Amino acid sequence: MGSIQAQPYDYELPSNGKVALIIIDMQRDFLESGGFGEALGNDVSLLRSIIPTVQKLLEVFRANQLPVFHTIEGHKPDLSDCPPAKLERGKGSLKIGDMGTMGRILILGEMGNNIIPELQPKDTEIVINKPGKGAFYATSLQEQLQEKQITHLIITGVTTEVCVQTTMREANDRGYECLLVEDGTESYFPQFKQATLEMVRAQGGIVGWTAHSTDIIQAFEGWKTG
Ligand code: C5J
């Protein structure tokens, strides 16, 4: 499939095409006013800059009929899958399960918990509901990736140092070759995003690679045309 110009060195795409796009938690709860992110005191507008980039990557994967996985951080309405420590953590204006302007905060199925309209999954794409920060914890992600024999993951979404980094580390430990999209991930804290990019690719890519979306898209265009 070719390679992507990346850091700390080029990322080789698998010759059998077993690569998936992972879009982490691009939910109203984190990107829009009235959700979990804002309840924790964050400026949610900071995360919106990556929407066009993630849209472009989504188009490329769809055009190439490659698998796409979306994740949603959310809990059951009765909160039985939410550890008390997570429920109590922080001094936000609203807690998980409280009623906000977009429905109950971080509860599956509520308007605020849904993926933003700009990145709505297609019926053919897999949506992983996750109670934790990592997308492998208490989900079927590993089984679904194995079923499709996926070995390489192109990772996008929010927030870089929380759910994105946790998922990337989980994936790394399970043997996946992970590439984090530099302009396809964002944080409420720019310095945390920068630190995450650097720690991922340090020590010869101890957790994986990072690359700009233009280099990723170029590699896929080359793959398609020959
Ligand atoms: C957070 C996430 N930040 N998706 N979740 O609580 O990163």
Can you walk me through this structure?
The protein has one domain (3-222): Rossmann fold (3-Layer(aba) Sandwich). It is 34% helix and 20% strand. The chain has helices spanning 28-31, 36-39, 51-63, 84-88, 141-147, 160-173, 190-205, 213-225, and strands spanning 3-4, 11-12, 19-24, 68-73, 99-100, 103-104, 126-130, 152-158, 177-186, 209-211. The strands form three sheets. The chain has a six-stranded parallel beta sheet, with helices on both faces. The protein has a two-stranded antiparallel ribbon with strand order 1-2. A hairpin with a 6-residue loop joins strand 1 and strand 2 (11-12). Helix 3 (51-63) runs parallel beside helix 8. The relative contact order is 0.21. Residues 25, 30, 73, 133, 158-159, 162-163 line the site of dicarbonimidic diamide.
